[in-house]
Amino acid sequence: MRGYDKYDKDVIATPRPKNLRLKHRTATKPTIIERWPVFQEQDRPPLSIRLTVRKSSIAVTMDHLPNFKYKSEPYPRVPLLSSQPYDGLDFDGYQTRRGFLLTPLYNRDFSQKPREETADFLQTWLFYGAIHELLTVDEPPDLGLFIEMDDYGFRASTRHIERLISAWAVKIEALAKKSVEECRAQLTRVGVALNTINKIYHNLLIVPDSPLPWEVTLSFGVLGCTMDHALKDIFNLGRGRTWGLDSLAATRMAAAGWCPRDVAVAQEFLSELPMFCASFMERRTVPFDHWNCSSATCLLNNIDEKTYVTQHRTQGCRCHMVGVDQSEVHRIIEKGGIPVIWITSSGVDAYGSPMLDVKLKNGGLVMNSYIAISHVWSDGLGNPHANTLPLCQLQSLYDRLVDMSWNETLHALNTTGQDIEYNGQTEKKIIEGLGKAFKFMAPGLKRVVDPIREYRKKPLAIWLDTFCVPLGGQNRKLAIANMAKIYSTAHMTIVLDSELQALEAKGCLDEELAIHIGLSGWQRRAWTFQEGALSTQWLRFLFRDGPAQLPLWKKENPDQSIALGYTMPGFVDGIERMQGKGLNLITKRLDGTPHYSRPDVPKSRLEEMERNKFTFALQSYTLEETKKFFIGMKLMWSGTHIHSHPDVLAARIIGIWETMRLRATSKESDKFICFAIMCALSGSQRQHLPALFSEDEHVRMRSWVQLQSIVPSGLLFIPGQRYDEPGFRWIPKGVYREPLIDDEYAERESEAEGGALLFSKPGWIVDEAPVRCLQDGMFVVSDSATSLRYTVEQVDAPSKSSSFALLQGEAMAVILMCRVGERPPEEGDNIKEMGALLRSVSQTPSRIRGDFVCRVRVGLCIESEGQSGTVPVPGRTIYGSQKWILG
To answer: For residues 632 and 478, which has the higher predicted lDDT (pLDDT)?
Structure first.
């Protein structure tokens, strides 16, 4: 029986019709068509495979991929080209048994046999044979599960692949307990098979006249990549293979009109298969031309204050502008308060149009809750010319938000204690008791409060920068420096984004929501990051059908309980002023390391987690990866405080940098302002912000470093412009696009010791630099301890006041990010590390001081790299934690 009865030899290599639109019908019950014999080793009886065919409308082959609600198009449908089942013998010899030579296939020659026969062979071997080889431990999987039928005939399917991978993982674990050698041999077989599939798959992508339809070739890559993801997810086995799905996804995204910045961010946070799935998502955005955008920034979100126009809700609307008394706003800010806009409905006017009563109150003094609005000015809710908005925009905000805070409160009362793992019996009893009490209170509270809200005409209190941040002057700086207090004390922060408001959250998978939010215009801006991260109460994203929250950050590991998103700035400021043993006790409890107790997780939950330990689900895998979009906010919610361990403080700054570098501001100098606000942990640190922002924008980064007790060492090794002044030449002038690749830190010594930042790094010291040690921006250091030679190559130009040309007899040194050869080399890496060159070096028993010259790259010296006339410089190696002071 032919499995591709509706395809002839002319159709096999025909590209997919671009305008194919198929009507979907409800799937019917699977039907057993026939039995196909599968012959294995001759000493075993023949094994029959039952072909289960699911009769349905046109369906996709890649059934295990996440099924998004908003799709630009379905995943590709893969026709069944195999005319016979896989024979069940060794994978490596199948090509010989079918009369094919392996060498031509490796050399991109697919002309050994007619195209139809070649297509038949390739799918049987690289899809069905691959499944048989990869998932067979004691008995092979039922390959008939991977064939279904739709309106166009038979097709390949992966509907059951996740279940079979999970069952395979359990068997591998059992095999490892029985025999480590057998387990190693089994996994080696899997790796060899995946390498073979990968090689021929890439050849099929490259050849101009492939015998296979592109959908069939793509199915090999999706299958192989799925298996690689499973190996990493379940057994933490690294991947040396790439399947090109991320490049294909980037091409698809660009063709669909995605901003290059969104494509770059997706590539940075998502691995191959999740990114491939994301490329099939529909983006509900107004068609924009991203021609001038780059991978670093989306220019369409930037605004020009001179040409910016505040938008009305509908085209042609002529409603009047609404504002509040700005003198009162200034007075509230000067007294340290929070200006809050109170809006109530005052009925309709003579023409039937709704009327709003808008008042200004001090949100820091009155006992009320307010909603902080986080939005992108390019969506039209800003106003650079006056602190006003059109009435229609204000009416829309009122209609959509007036009941939101109250509804979320009732929802919280009814769900208190859900999805929380407890750190101990006491906490568990407290939370469970509160949950029962709140659920009991909720109906009565609703009956009492609803009439009051109606009587008061449902007041809505909001904080919106368009109204509440002055357009200029010292009070504007005070308002900006007060953002932490504004967003942390708000009852709720609601995110307004035009793309999200065009979507309905109901029915979307968690990972789909996370990708939409992670690539939204709100996620591109630096100001909105601080607004979201500082929102320590409820953070909600407004969709067309109402508010939605980020996917839960629940941790499945019982040794890591969930951290509540409350930073409690007032409590932290109080801790800062405490002294003695009580301080150490509290900080250790907050850090959670010495006094940690295992969460009290129910036995049934532990048993469920043990059962699911080897369960693989691409949907869950994708969800975990999408959380990387928000890792900066998660770090901000982790409860870090000024007395946390330096490792924790450095990780927090690195997390803020990593988030800020992917976001943009209309004014480049504003990015540093956001960065500094986010890094301020205590009241004393926040007090320095107004003075810091009053300085010239070109010296702010230098001043910020001087205020810090901890800075990431990675600042020393990133590219970008640096200061020319002595003592600051190593400091970058701003927050750049490049990542901080070093996760260590420099710590400031006490004032009694000089108050300098100390870097603890390995390196070399050269007491006297010969004149001819330099040539073409490179010199060679000979390690006096090991006699190994290392090349030191100039990476970027030295500062204006320094030079790569050293004076005869001048002492110099090289600081290494880490010891050469200490890091495991990545694919294609020749083990070179970043470093920093110092001159005018002086040394004491505990310190080495030198002037920063430039960044360098250090690697083991190969003879071919040596250059005539380059004299090796003898260097004294320092492998330990030497203390360096930079000038």
So the answer is: 478
CA angle 322, 325, 331 (to 5 degrees): 145
What's the number of CA atoms in the CB half-sphere (13 Å) around residue 734?
A: 18
Q: Are residues 358 and 256 in the same domain?
A: no
Output 505 or 9, whichever has higher pLDDT.
Answer: 505
Residues 718 and 587 placed together within one structural domain of the fold: yes
Q: Name the band, by pLDDT with cuts 50, 70 and 90, for residue 290.
A: confident
Contact 656, 632 (CB under 8 A): yes
Output the 3-class SS for 632-644.
Answer: HHHHHCCCCCCCC
Whole-model pTM? 0.79
Residues 210 and 259 in one domain: no
Q: Say whether 574 sits in a helix, a strand or coil.
A: helix
Per the DSSP assignment, residues forming a β-bridge with 837 are: 814, 854
CA distance 232 to 239: 7
Domain-located, residue 707: yes
User: Per the domain annotation, does 614 fall within a domain?
Assistant: no
Beta strands in 281-427 (DSSP E): 321-323, 339-348, 354-362, 371-375, 388-390
CB 370 within 8 A of CB 487: no
Q: What pLDDT, in 10s, does the model give residues 597-641?
A: 333 445 554 555 555 666 788 888 888 889 888 888 877 777 777
* Positive/negative CA dihedral, 807, 813, 814, 815: negative
Residues 705 and 836 in one domain: no
8 Å CB contact between 227 and 616 = no
Per-residue 3-state assignment (H helix, E strand, C coil) for 469-510: CCCCCHHHHHHHHCHHHHHHHCCEEEEECCCHHHCCCCCCCH
Same domain, 688 and 766: no
| Residue 201 and residue 69 share a domain | yes
Calpha distance 813→766 (Å, rounded): 6
Query: Does 434 fall in a domain?
Result: no
Q: How many domains are there within the chain?
A: 5
Evaluate whether residue 381 is within a structural domain. Answer: yes
**Count of CA atoms in the C-beta half-sphere (13 A) of 780:** 18
Where a domain ends, among 283, 301, 336? 283
Residues in the chain: 887
Helices (DSSP H) in 549-682: which residue ranges?
A: 569-576, 581-591, 603-611, 618-626, 631-636, 646-660, 668-679
Q: Letter for the amino acid at 38? A: V
Do 672 and 694 lie in one domain? The reply is yes
Asked if residue 227 and residue 180 are part of one domain, the reply reads yes
- The upper half-sphere exposure of residue 99, i.e. CA atoms within 13 Å in the direction of its Cβ, equals 7
Contact 262, 253 (CB under 8 A): yes
Q: How far apart are CA 684 and CA 362, in angstroms?
A: 24
Is 321:392 a contact under the CB 8 Å cutoff? no
Domain span at residue 261 reads 244-283
